[in-house]
## 1
Amino acid sequence: VQLQASGGGLVQAGGSLRLSCAASGRTLSSAWFRQAPGKEREFVAGIRWSGGRTDHADSVRGRFAISRDNAKATSYLQMSSLKPEDTAVYFCAAHTSQVIVSAIRQMESYPYWGQGTLVTVSS
C-alpha cells in the first residue's frame, strides 16, 4: 500500500488547512503524526475505518478532526484554529487491518507511511 499525503502549506495563526492522505489500496486504520524541528514524531489523530472510531491528541482535540472517505480510500485531517506550535511535517500512516484501540497512538501500529507534508503556521 502506498500513501500520498497532500494539503500542507503556509497559513496564519487562527487559520485552517485540510490534509489528505490517499491510499493505493484498502486500509482499515489510518492516523496522522507530526514532527516539529528538533522534536520527536508525535501522534495527532487516528481512525478505525470500520465503525469510524477516532482518537485525537489532547493538544489538538477540538481543533483538529480526522475523517475518512471509504470510496476514495482517503483519510483527511481538518485543522482549524491553527497555532504556531502546530508547525511541523505531518505524516499519514495506515494499516490494512483494524488497529486495536489501545494501539491507535503508537507509530509501531502502522506499517505504511506517506512522505510527509509541511504545515507552517505564522504568528
## 2
Amino acid sequence: QVQLVESGGDLVQPGGSLRLSCAASGSIFSIYDMGWYRQAPGKQRELVAAITSGGSTNYADSVKGRFTISRDNAKNTVYLQMNSLKPEDTAVYYCNALARDYSGRYYPVFGSWGQGTQVTVSS
C-alpha cells in the first residue's frame, strides 16, 4: 500500500499563489497516473487535476489556466502549482493515484486517503 502525505497548504489572499506537494512512499509510484482532489465544506470531493505516468495533464474547468500539476518520479512526488487563487478554491486538498473505469473516467486507486492539506483563500 502506498502512503500519501500532502503539504503546502496555507492561508492566502485572493490572487495569490501556493504550491502543494504530495510525497508517496513505495517504489511503484512512477507507473500510476496521479491526481489532486479537493473537498470544500459541505461538498463532495472533486478531482481538479490529473497527470498520467507519461506526463500528460488535464484539469477541471474551474481551475484550468490557473493550476498546474507536475510530477518528479525520482522523488516520488506530485505537485500542484496554484495561481490566481479565488475564495472558491478554499478546500482541503488531497492526492491519490488514479485508474480509469470502463467509461474512461478516473477514480481514486487507494481507499485510504492522506490527511490532506488545507488551502484557505481569504482577505
## 3
Amino acid sequence: VQLQAFGGGLVQSGGSVRLSCGASGIFGRITSMAWYRQAPGKQRELVAPIASGGTTDYANSVKGRFTISRDNAKNTVYLQMNRLKPDDTAVYYCSADQIYYNSRELPAVSRHWGQGTLVTVSS
C-alpha cells in the first residue's frame, strides 16, 4: 500500500491549507485513516483520525480549526486547516490501516504511512 500526500506549503498566520492523501496498491480493506504531524525537535503527534464510517476525533490544539474528511470510494483522506498558527508548522503525515487476510488466511492489520508534506506557517 502506498500513500501519497499533497498540499503542503508556506502560508501566513490565519490562513488556510488543505492537505490530501490517497492510498493505492490496496490488497485488503482500508479502515481508519489519520493525520499526524511532527514539528522540529518534537515527537510525532496524532492530529486527527477518521474511521471508515466517518467518526472523527481531534487533538485539543486543533479542535475548531481543522477538519478531517475522507472519500472511501477514492481511498483518500483530507485535512482542511483553517486559522493556522505558527505552532502548526510541521511535517504532516497521513496514515491508513488496512485489514487483510495473511498467508495463513487469518485476519491481520497493517499500518501504512505517507511520505510527509511540510506546512510552514509564518507569523
## 4
Amino acid sequence: QVQLVESGGGLVQAGDSLRLSCAASGNTFSIINMGWFRQGPGKEREFVGYITRSSGTTYHTDSLEGRFTVSRDSAKDTMYLQMNNLKPEDTAVYYCAADRFRLGTRVDHYEYWGQGTQVVVSS
C-alpha cells in the first residue's frame, strides 16, 4: 500500500504563486509515476501533470500555459506542484496520485490517491 498526503493549499489572490506538496509513504519503491489532478466546483477531475520516479521526466497539460510545474525530492519521497500566476479558474481541490504500472493522464491510470488540498484563488 501507498499513502499520499497533500499539503500547501489555501486562499490566494490572482497573480500569486503557491507550491503544493505530496508526501508518499508505505511501499513507495513500487511506484513508477506520480501525478497531480484537480477538480473545480461542478467539474470533472482533470489531469495537471506527472513525474516519473526513476528519471524525473515530467509531462504537463498544455492548457496550463506553462504556469504549473511538477517536481520532486526523491530523498523525501515528495512531489511538488509549483503554481504561478494563479487565476480564479485555478480554484479547485488538488489531488496527488500514484501508480505502480503506468504513465498516464487519466484518472483511471492511477491506483493511489491523496485526500486533496483546496486552493481558492480570489480575483
